[in-house]
Amino acid sequence: MLKVLILHGWGGSDDPHWQAWLAGEIAKDYGTVSFPLLDNPHFPSKNRWMKQIKSLLNDFRPDIVICHSLANIAWFHLCNEGEISPVKRLLLVAPPHLTCEIETLKTFFPLEAPKALFAEEVLLVTSTDDPYMSTQEAAELQKALGVEMKVIENGGHINTASGYGEWPWVKEWVLQ
């Protein structure tokens, strides 16, 4: 069975968020999943998150990593450092723009798109009306990363507020 690491964004992704739902679905099928609460999710620190994620990667050794929102940015920083082991599959869901100017998140921004994502297969999932990344910014990120992109029509930030609790598509992606 594949080992799946799910990394939440700013504020966490507790129930009824799709990440919490997905962790439960994987566990119900006796899958191996790690869905940790990252340090101080409402007032995150890039350095603390990166240290915690590095430790998770080294100890858990996931096959699949699923990032939502700010977790994508932490992953990009780790990739830019180049000190992580590659994973088989990486799902990047609703990353914010690389120059986000939210004061609480200032330690994470700005940054450059990584040249390597440390994954054999990568899929970027964005939305046509994400308040943290426009469709043009998403297209630019896709081009910079050189990955496939799935665009959800009117999916907002692809979180609970935009109706993403149960999300069968993501479970199918993991189990494919």
A few lines on this structure:
The protein is built from 5 helices and 6 strands, in the order E-H-E-H-E-H-E-E-H-E-H. By secondary structure, it is an alpha/beta fold. Helix 2 (46-60) crosses helix 3.
The shape is: globular
What integer is the average pLDDT? 96
Alpha-beta content class: alpha/beta
Distance between the termini: 12 Å
Question: How large a portion of the residues is in β-strands, by DSSP E?
Answer: 15-25%
Poorly predicted runs are none
Strand order of the largest sheet: 2-1-3-4-5-6
Q: What is the class in the CATH system? A: Alpha Beta
What is the level-2 CATH architecture name? 3-Layer(aba) Sandwich
SSE pattern, N- to C-terminal: EHEHEHEEHEH
Number of helices: 5
Described by strand count, sense and barrel closure, the largest sheet is:
6 strands, parallel
- What CATH calls the topology is Rossmann fold
Q: Give the % helix.
A: 25-40%
InterPro entries: AB_hydrolase_fold (IPR029058), RBBP9/YdeN (IPR010662)
Organism: Sulfuricurvum kujiense (strain ATCC BAA-921 / DSM 16994 / JCM 11577 / YK-1)
Protein name: Serine hydrolase family protein
GO molecular function: hydrolase activity
